[in-house]
Each structure stands twice: as C-alpha cells, then as structure tokens.
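Onboarding guide, step 5: your first structure request.
Type a short instruction followed by the sequence, for example:

Predict the 3D structure of this protein.
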Amino acid sequence: MARRKITVIGAGNVGATTAQRLAERDYADIALVDIVEGLPQGKALDLNQSGPVVGFEPHVVGTNGYEETAGSDVIVITSGVARKPGMSRDDLLTTNQRIVADVTKAAVEQSPDAFIVVVSNPLDAMCHIALDTSGFPSERVVGMAGILDSARFRTFLAWELGVSVRDITGFVMGGHGDTMVPVVSNTNVAGIPVTELLSRSQIDSIVQRTRDGGAEVVKHLKTGSAYYAPSAAAAEMVDAILLDQKRVLPCAAYLTGQYGVDGLYLGVPVTLGAGGVEQIHEVQLTDEEKSQLEHSANAVRELVDVMHAKA
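The system replies with structure tokens like these:
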C-alpha cells in the first residue's frame, strides 16, 4: 500500500513534536514546513536519524517552500506566535490571522484534496480563516482543541480520584479559551457518574483548572506554550481521518444549526473518519451547560466578527 503524506506547517515545538509522533506511527511520509531557514531541515534530519532506533522508515523532509508538500492527504497547521505569560489566546488574533491565511493558501494550492487540521490559536477563529482561504467544504477543515482540553480535564479528574485516566470518559465543548465547557453531566468513571464520586466544589475546581490548563503551562515555561499534549491530540485526529477510525472526538467543527449555533466553528463531539467530520453529535446538556455553551459561542463569534471587520 502506498504511504500517505502529511504536511505539518510550523516547525516549532508543537509542529516538530506532531511530526515526530506521526513519523513514529510509520504509515505516512511527513513534510515539515517553516519560514525560518534551516529550522525544518535540521529537525527533519534529526527525526530521520531516530528512525533506525525507534523503528520507523525515515521519510521526513524539511522545507521552507511548499513544492515538497504536493499531494498531501492531511495538512496540519501549527504556525503562528505562541502565547507569553499573561496573554490570552485571543491576543494572538491579528498576527496569527495573517499567518494562517498565508500558509493555508500556499498549502492548498499544492494539495487541493487534503483535509486541514488547525492547531493555531485562537483556534476557533483560525478555523474560519482556513475554511475561507481554502474554499474547502467545512467537513474537510477541523480544529484541534477539544481533545486537548478533554485530556486535561480527564487528567485532573484521575488525579483527584486516584484512578486510571483510561477509565475516565469526559469531554469539553465550546470555544478553546476561557469560556470552554467541560460537560460534567456526561462525565463518568467506568460508567459511574463523576457527580456521585466528587463534591460540587471539587468538580468546580477541576473545571476551572481545565479552563486555565494552557495558561498554567505557559506560566511555568515562561517562554512558549504547551506542546506534548497538543501534538498528541493533533496526531490522534490525523489517525482518525487517514486510518478511517470513525472516532467520536471533541473537535472544533463548523455548526449549521446544531446546539442552536449556525455558521460558526465550535468544539463539539464529532465522528472523525475518512470523510473528515462525518457527523456532528448533539448530546443532552443541562440548562446550565446549554447557557455556558451559548456564552462560549458568543465569545467565538465576537472574535470572528473582529477578524471579518479587519479583513
């Protein structure tokens, strides 16, 4: 079987680690693109040389252009400036808006049939840029945020309960930012509702830590932001699409009336497979969660409106 091809745009921490995770899966060739001369080439060379040790065929190319990306099945966009301490994801809007538009245009010219996985922040707004610039149908443009936020949520719950993270099912919906909505009503430990195992104040504290999850990492690092968990989440999405796994995962998807939201990217559970976003699932939410989701959607819409006003 012919190997698949994945382009990862941005050879910083998130992009390079995503390229590493995907290369080690050994089903695809990787093109790592960055504007900085030498950076993607050096990281690609280093990654290739880990192949004989880890046990994958080294097919990683680093480039400053897009010719080498031609015919990609998936394009993962991680480029843009990272957050600094004290910055919100929304502070990155203007700079990353321009960057994401430029790289999307260059990449889709070479790979008109690809799927796009957006990782750049502010995530939900950047999905709109990728959708508008590519001209692709919305099921082929999806954002990585919900898997990451849910992984943080599940980690904190596992620590609090002293159980395996593998036994915690729970997901986070809404915009990737301060208004995200960890869906407590649908969260369980091997089928036991988390509300039966923890007090309201314990759950509230974990919900807040989940919302601040990225900022907590940024605060520790001081320069740069999280990349191990984001790259793991991006790779999980690429697997779901290219291996047609039909995974039900929380992703930023383009809503057309679901949850009362129309014409907006928002984090919701979707079936992710060979058709991209194959189905958007509407789950039962409590009145409080519905109201939080509406608040989150309004926050995302404000950002999108600001972008369109500047465009």
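Each response can be followed by summary notes, for example: Residues 4-143 form a domain with the Rossmann fold fold (CATH 3.40.50.720).
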